[in-house]
């Protein structure tokens, strides 16, 4: 498997279980790429929905993906603090200059005070029936919701106090380097 290179710009592709594209983020800067972890950043990037609608992200975000966990975490840097949007998803793959994963509907929104809410349980149940999620996927996802809640409570991974500062600084450094190259 190829690994994204720090400073490169790649896309992020979200699919649904049936193989259809769900959403594409046009430009995300690679901050770290290894065999298992991808950390990227984007700001005011174009997002294209499956129905062709487009929108721009509003704030800078640090994105965390892992090749062994069934979730990814988007850290949105807002004026009143960091909000986290956690997607229950397949582990990512890096293919054809894009991070790719299957979105499994369930989401956890985490607020700056580390309180959180599980979202889209109705959508998950509906898609589970419509797309025939296997029982094994259902069990994996439920186990990973528990794991993710543990990370939130223990302030692990992207929820660790210094995570945002470290990766925001890396993003600003890379952004500056690339603007000087132009």
From TrEMBL:
Indicate yes or no for the key word Ligase: no
Q: Name one GO molecular function term.
A: ribonucleoside triphosphate phosphatase activity
Reaction catalyzed: a ribonucleoside 5'-diphosphate + H2O = a ribonucleoside 5'-phosphate + phosphate + H(+); a ribonucleoside 5'-triphosphate + H2O = a ribonucleoside 5'-diphosphate + phosphate + H(+)
Any idea which residues are catalytic in this one? 23 (proton donor)
What positions does the entry give for Mg(2+) 1 binding?
Answer: 87, 103, 107
Query: Where in this chain does the entry annotate a coiled-coil region?
Result: none
Extract the Gene3D superfamilies matched here.
Answer: FomD-like
Indicate the secretion signal residues.
none
Task: Tell me the residue numbers annotated for binding Mg(2+) 2.
Answer: 105, 107, 120, 123
Metal-binding recorded as keyword: yes
Entry EC no(s): 3.6.1.15, 3.6.1.6
Which intervals hold domain DUF402? 18-156
What's the short name of a Pfam family annotated to this entry? Answer: DUF402
Similarity field: Belongs to the Ntdp family.
Database matches in HAMAP family: Ntdp (MF_01568)
Q: What does this protein do?
A: Has nucleoside phosphatase activity towards nucleoside triphosphates and nucleoside diphosphates.
Indicate what this protein is called per its UniProt record: Nucleoside triphosphate/diphosphate phosphatase
Native species of this protein?
Answer: Ureibacillus yapensis
Q: What is the lineage of its organism?
A: Bacteria, Bacillati, Bacillota, Bacilli, Bacillales
